[in-house]
Write a structure and sequence with these properties.
The model has no long low-confidence stretch (mean pLDDT 97). By secondary structure, the protein is of the alpha/beta class.
């Protein structure tokens, strides 16, 4: 099997210090958490940013200073800004970090129920426009998938020229779609040959899905965006602790950990 790419989603837009006091808000905290994850073995930092009071934002300048802080601490790490932002943000807001020309960015391929009355909206035109902009700016999209229909959208839009192949998918299980080995296997079997994929398990599903993904030859995402616990009832002290747990699982299952440059080679992206 190829080496394992670990992505750390260090803060998200919804989780707060009330959930876990170690969730980062400030530029210094975001840099600290990215560094902890990187030193533990993460080669990609999936990045949302906050203002110092914890308010999520897609402001380009806030992304710029956070990226600069992460790069100061982890010069070779791959930074993957979110274009999802937070529920209710406009497309124009969400696209701002792509203007900074990151190596990668997330691209959500469908609308979904996000809990309670919250709906995360991604129309066909939104997906097409985000894909077009990423092609223009040379940004590799990570296709965010919450159910099978989003895989089908990605394949269709790739055929129409809005997403370049080979594609990289992130299967987020435990939100709209169940988090089981059966469901992950079905999703993996649904993507085009030559694609790469990562699995993200939400909440208590994080580590079980990580173990399954490692064994299947895929890649893994963990972090405070998805889960704030190291184990049942025990809050993680850092994103680094969560990455360390994945590294231990990988060692037991015989997978080596990819460096950032090895991740670039696997994903077909060039370092900027």
């Amino acid at each position: 099997m190829e080496k394992l790419i670990i992505t750390a989603a260090i803060c998200g837009a919804e989780v707060t210090k009330e959930h876990n006091p170690n969730v980062p808000y400030t530029v210094e905290e975001i840099g600290r958490e990215a560094e902890a994850a990187y030193k533990a073995g993460a080669s990609i930092i999936h990045l949302h940013v906050r203002y110092d009071d914890g308010t999520p934002t897609q402001d380009k300048e806030r992304f710029r200073v956070c990226i600069e802080e992460i790069k100061r601490r982890c010069p070779d790490v791959i930074i993957q800004p979110s274009t999802g932002g937070a529920v209710g943000m406009s497309d124009e807001e969400r696209l701002q970090p792509v203007e900074l020309l990151p190596e990668m960015a997330s691209l959500d391929c469908g609308t979904l129920n996000f809990g309670g009355d919250e709906i995360f909206v991604n129309t066909e035109n939104t997906i097409k426009n985000f894909g077009r902009v990423m092609i223009e700016k040379g940004v590799k999209p990570e296709i965010e998938v919450f159910d099978k229909g989003m895989v089908d959208y990605a394949i269709r839009f790739a055929k129409e020229g809005y997403i370049l192949e080979p594609m990289h998918f992130n299967f987020v299980l435990g939100v709209q779609m169940a988090a089981t080995a059966r469901d992950l296997a079905f999703m993996v079997d649904s993507i085009p040959a030559g694609s790469t994929w990562t699995v993200t398990g939400i909440g208590r599903h994080e580590m079980p899905m990580a173990a399954i993904g490692i064994a299947m030859g895929g890649h893994v995402r963990v972090g405070f965006e998805d889960n704030v616990y190291l184990e049942r009832g025990v809050l993680a002290k850092s994103n680094g602790e969560l990455v360390e747990k994945v590294v231990r699982l990988a060692k037991e299952l015989g997978r080596e950990i990819a460096t950032p440059d090895e991740a670039r080679e696997i994903l077909g992206i060039k370092r900027r």
